[in-house]
Every structure is written in C-alpha cells, then in structure tokens.
Amino acid sequence: MTNKKYGHFDDEHREYVITDPQTPWPWINYLGNEDFFSLISNTAGGYSFYKDAKFRRLTRYRYNGVPMDNGGRYFYIKDGDTVWSPGWKPCKTPLDFYECRHGMNYTRITGRKDGVEASILFFVPLKTWGEVQKLTLKNESKDVKSIKLFSFEEWCLWNAATDMENFQRNFSTGEVEIEGSVIYHKTEYRERRNHYAFYGVNVPVQGFDTDRETFIGLYNEFACPDAVMEGRPRNSHAHGWSPIASHYIEVTLQPGEAKDFIFLLGYVENEQEEKFAAHQVINKDKAKAMLARFDTTEKVDAAFAELNAYWDSLLNIYNVETGNDKLDRMVNIWNQYQCMVTFCMSRSASFFESGIGRGMGFRDSNQDLVGFVHQIPERARQRIIDIASTQFPDGGCYHQYQPLTKRGNNDIGGGFNDDPCWLIFGTVAYIKETGDFTILDEMVPFDNQPGSEVTLFEHLRVSFDHVINNLGPHRLPLIGRADWNDCLNLNCFSWDPNESFQTTENKSEGSKAESVMIAGLFVVTGKDYVALCRRTGRDEEADRAQKHVNAMEEAVKQHGWDGEWYLRAYDFFGNKIGSDECEEGKIFIESQGWCTMAGIGLEEGLVGKALDSVKERLECEHGIVLNNPAFTTYHVEMGEISSYPEGYKENAGIFCHNNPWVIIGETVAGRGEDAWEHYKKILPSYVEEDRQTLHKVEPYVNCQMVAGKDAFRPGEGKNSWLTGTAAWMWYTVSEFILGIKPDYDGILIDPCLPKTAKEYTVRRRFRGAEYEIHVQNPDGASKGVKSVTLDGKALDGALVPFVPGKHVVEVIM
Ligand code: BGC
Ligand code: NOJ
Questions:
Q1: How many Å lie between the centroid of ligand 1 and the Cα of residue 486?
Q2: CA-to-CA distance for 725 and 741, rounded, in angstroms?
Q3: What three-state secondary structure class fits 580?
Q4: 753 within ligand 2 shell (Cβ under 6 A)
Q5: How far is CA 64 from CA 213, 412, 505, 776, 807, in A?
Q6: What is the pLDDT of residues 674-703, one digit of tens each?
Q7: Shortest CA distance to 528 belongs to which of 660, 387, 659, 431?
Q8: The model's pTM
Q9: Could you say which of 15, 349, 483, 738 would form a disulfide bridge with 515 (CB–CB 3.0 to 4.6 Å)?
Q10: What are phi and psi of 713, to 5 degrees?
Q11: 218: which residues sit within 8 A by CB, 6+ positions away?
C-alpha cells in the first residue's frame, strides 16, 4: 500500500494540520472540556451534547452513514451558481484551498473558492455551555462579491437513543421558536424538560428555516438542499418532524474586505418556576445573556485567548526536552491532550463509540484519571468520589455509570472481578500527585444509598478484600464475568446470537475460572495499598494485607507459571488458558504485563523469561498482539474473545492499552532498549511519519486497536481516541521511561532509557513547586541513578523531597 500524507504536525501552534479533506477516515477533534462537548471532524461533521452523549444530545448525527460522516454544523456559500462548503463536505464542491487545523479543544477549518475565503474557528469557551463558530468571510478577488450564506444544524430530540427509534412519537413532538436571529429548540420543554437549546448569529438575518424537509427537500440530501440551491430560504416553522436551525444571510464584500459572523450553539437550563416568559413562550433570558457574551469579534477573540492560556497552563505542568521531536510532541502535547479527552469522555462518544452505548466505566475512569491527575487534581478527586459512590458494600462494582445521573447501572454488564483493584490504582495516583491524604477520610456511600457512607479508605479496603474473598481452587482470583479483557468470558457459555456476551447471565455457580492477570494486578495494587497503609499509620492493616500479597505471589509462582511465560487463566472446569499445552491462544499479553510489572519471580528469572516470550511470540512490526496463536474457531468456554476474526480486537489484535504494561514490565527488569522499542511502535508520531494510509485513523492520538499480525490488514487502526492507551502511554513515558515519579513525599527519579538517550530535561510542576530536572546519561546506562542533587546539594537516594519554590535537580545515571 503506497502511503499518502494527509497532514502534518505544527508543534509551535500545537496543531495537527490536515491538508486533504478526504482522509482515510474522518479525523476528529473534541471541543469543550467540562460540561459542554462537541465532536468535530475535519469536514465539520459531528455533534454536540451537554454532559451526557446519550441523555442530553443537542444535535443529530448519523452513524455509519453513506457517505461517511453525515450530520454536523454546516455552512453553505452560494456565490453565483456555485455552492460550496468551507470544510468541503457536505457540498463536496472541489475547493481551491482546504485546511483543517485541530488544536487543543478548538478546530479551524478554512476553504477557498473563486476568490472567497471562508475560515471558521470552532470552540467551546471555558465555563460555557455552548459552541462558538466564528466565520470569517474574505473577498480575495478584484470584484465585488455578493454571497448568500446559509448555516445549518439539525436538532436531536435530546435522548440520542430514542431519537433513533421512536418515530411514532418523535415526528409529532418537535417544537421551535424563532426570535430575531436566534432559533430556539424547545421540544418537550412544555412537559418535563427544563432545558432548551438555541442557535443564533450576531447579525440580522434575511431569512431562516427550521423544518428539515422544507429546507432540504424530501428526496434531496445535505449536499444540495433545495433552499440553498435556489438561494431562497423558506422561513419555515417546524411543527413535529425534524426540526433544524438554518440562518440565511446576504453578504456583500468589497475587494479585499473581510467580515466576521459569530454563530453560537447554546444550551440553557431554567428553574421550574422560571421556565416561561408567557403562555407557550420560553424564558430566553439566559440564552440572551450567553449570546451577549459572544456577540463581537473582540469578545470571541478574548474567549479564545483564554482557552489557549488555559492549555498553556495545563501543558506547562510536565514538559520534556529530549531533542527528539517525535517524542517531545507526543509527551508535551498530544498524549496529554488525549488524556484530558479520555478523562472527560471515558468510552462514551467518539466515531467508534456511539454515545448511546456506554457511560463512564469503573475501571476505565480509574485508569483515565492516572493520565489526567497532574493536570487538574481537583477534578480527579471528584471523579474518584463519584466512582467509589457506585461501589457495593462487598467491594464489587457496577461496571459503568451515566455521567448525568452518576448512578451505577448494569447496562453494559457487571461482575468483572478486576474492577475493585482499579479504585486503589486511581486513588494512590491522586494522593501521590497531590499529597492530599484527606481524600481517604471523605465519607462515600455504597451504590449511592444515603446512610451507607463510609470513608474512602474503607472503600479501598473492601476493594482489596473483594479479591481475597473471591479466590479459586489455586488461590488465584476468580475471574467473574471477565477481567480487564471484557471478552475473556469464561462463565458465559453462550450459544444464543441474540444475547450480548457482556450482559448475558453469568453462570459462575461452581466455576473454577481464575485470572492470573487479576493476580498480577492485585500484587501491584496490593503493594500500593500496603504502602499507603504504612504511610498513614495503619500498620496492622498493612501487615494483614502484606500477607495476602505474599500469598498471591506464591500462588502465581506455583500455579500461574507455564514454563516460559505466565499462564493467562484457568477456565470454568479448571483447564489452563494461555499455556503451551493449548492449541490456540498459548500465550496472552495481560498476565505477562501485570506479573512482570508486579515483579513476580524476578529473582528466579521469571520476569525476563516472560518478557522474552512476549518478544518472540507476541511482538510484530506494529506492536504487541494480545494473544498467539489467534483463535480460528469459536470456543464457547472462552466467549467473545473467540468471536472476532484473527488479528482483530481482543483476538490477537494489537490492543494498544496493554502494550504499556509490558513496557513497564521491561523497565522493572531494567531493559531500557526493549522498553523504548515497544513504546516507539505504538507512538502515534512514528506512525504519522510513514503509515497514514494504512493506519487510517487519526495520526495524532492513540487508537484502541491496531490490526495484529494475523489480520487481513496488519497495521490498520480502529477505535481511535477513547482508549485507556492514552493514560497508560502517559504513565509509562512520564514515570517509567523518563522516570519522574510522583510519590507521597516528593518525586522519585527512576528513568529507564535506551542507550541513545544521553540527556534530557523535564520541567515538572508539583503541588505548586517547580522542578527543573536535568538528566544526564553519559555512559548510556539503561537504569540506575548514580547521583541526584537538589539545588546543588547532593541527596541521599533518588527521592527529591517536596519543597515549595523553584528548584534545579541534576541527575547522573
Ligand atoms: C469489545 C470490548 C469492549 C466490550 C464492552 C466488546 O465487544 O470487544 O473491547 O470492552 O465489548 O463494551
Ligand atoms: C475496552 C473497554 O473499555 C475496557 O474496559 C476493556 O478493558 C478493554 N476494552 C479490553 O476488553
């Protein structure tokens, strides 16, 4: 496959610049970072929602459409007989120039046609429930231009799931109001909703449309709406069917002249008593106030500058200079940016996650916050409390909760026995970053039941105990529905294609199914738990817990080792999974990752052997595959994993999320060269250089899965953006490769490097202090710090104590 480049990085502006609209797949970006969010593709497709992509969807989107990526915020420019869109779609009229710049929570799309340039800046201003679209039209020709401009948004009837199915009701509920240049969407406001949305522009309009079929024409399409093609809005008022919002503006531009138009898509909530201004007339005060905040170019530019300054401050917290651009731009910009996005979205809304399937995952969000906690610790703190509030008294967990309600639900399954461990993982990361031990004393309910509150520490204890209370015949953790690998369903035995592997009844009664992966995870998080107990003076609890951790290590050595690698699991009947004895799936990545991270059997050489087996059997050109050999038939006793064709997803795909586990395992073994080689293979900037066509998805962020060596098209990426890979890549590079590890009382310096890494500097803000850490590695050592000085004074060991102020740290390897 010949490679074509569709764009390039612009590090100075922290942007990815797309120069061809026909990317191999829509390349998207995220606007908003708190309550109001938009997904936007490189051709302005996508949608907006408030907090929850399922329950509070503002604009409509068509998934998996033909052509791809249908629905968005569209502008049509009618210049004489030519109609075009600045983002190429939906008109697809060939442009004289096209560019899309995806930046930190903003996107700027520019198109040029016949001497007219249209450039639109899309962003969600800080603390604002709305998306600003600043359109600049410029006449670059020598003639006066008279242009007809149409905007377009299509409303979603709030609940994105029922919006797609309940037409018998939906087609009768739609309601709008039109006042001046603002179109208000108030479907269901008359009854139980106290929110509406609006789409306005800061200039008078010469017409509008709010009924989709009137605007587009029943047998027409987005590319060529009737109203636009005829250059004549219908001033339609929607009653039921599909309400839209379209403004019509006539623009005259002198040669060289430019004009700004500020569009605002906003969301408003009103108190019950203040819902209406008059009978059937909505109270528009808040909408008008928001419109007034963004009604001039100056105000919008100021809000945009604030957003940029916000990102300056976030990205200043950890900044590295290694001299390797590909590494620096991922560490300093894109990896941290993706961590913000995964923190906000969990696995809910992307171009692979419909926004109606999943909310916030228990395990997912705990992992995501590890990539984010250094950015805004207070939000990570709240997240931990929210997650823990959905836990059950015995330590078990709902697998997800809905962000709008914060209540746990079983919509995507439950009974995953790895879940509790991740709460320890997330909480420890938070305390190490902030030094805020008070979080442990917060009173947190079980399953959100008032009156059930116990301290967060108690939640950690029941999490720890959930594992030891659920051990199997080999004293290894029972797997439950599955562990981290949602598709290793050892208790499902499903022959019914109409049931989901994730939610079907779990036949775990009498099951012997145990997970070696959870064992490794338990040893890692269990050691963290012990250390936390000691640090907070809970010595008795620490002693008790340590015994269980030791016992688990023993159990893995006795029953979890296959000879050359760690076993993956025991199935329902007690048969081995991930053993050389198996015909398919002899070796799996997850247990190699976690047991090497845990250092189980390090002295006996198990860690090194397992890592070598990974290189020999699982590694390929594009990364490390999940298992090998891939499953070629359905194994009912293993479930969904064997439902995927070879090389895809959990069946021997490169599941990027778990590659960092092996990389960290390599750093535990001190093998800096191997760690770096594995890391580089899934680092987007390396893929960006020469594999854009093959890789297909966005080259500036990690995707969940890259097709593995057994796949039809190895190297092809899928499921971009929302993946635990973001947090794990960050954790790995920042703490284990570059070796800057937040710890309870300071920063521990412990790099693990390839020989070629001779010198680098990390600037790290930590609890308000600033450390400039200069690492020198003259002999090309992999691991081992020879000396550390803090402000010129030699330290005893590698822990740089936390001291307020500005500091210089010199490290020699
Ligand atoms: C996917 C998993 C996912 C699970 C739960 C499965 O079909 O392969 O990656 O975690 O569904 O949504
Ligand atoms: C994606 C899910 O979000 C995550 O929770 C799971 O661990 C992986 N898939 C592996 O199955």
A1: 6
A2: 19
A3: coil
A4: no
A5: 22, 21, 30, 51, 52
A6: 999 999 999 999 999 999 999 999 999 999
A7: 431
A8: 0.98
A9: 483
A10: -130, 80
A11: none
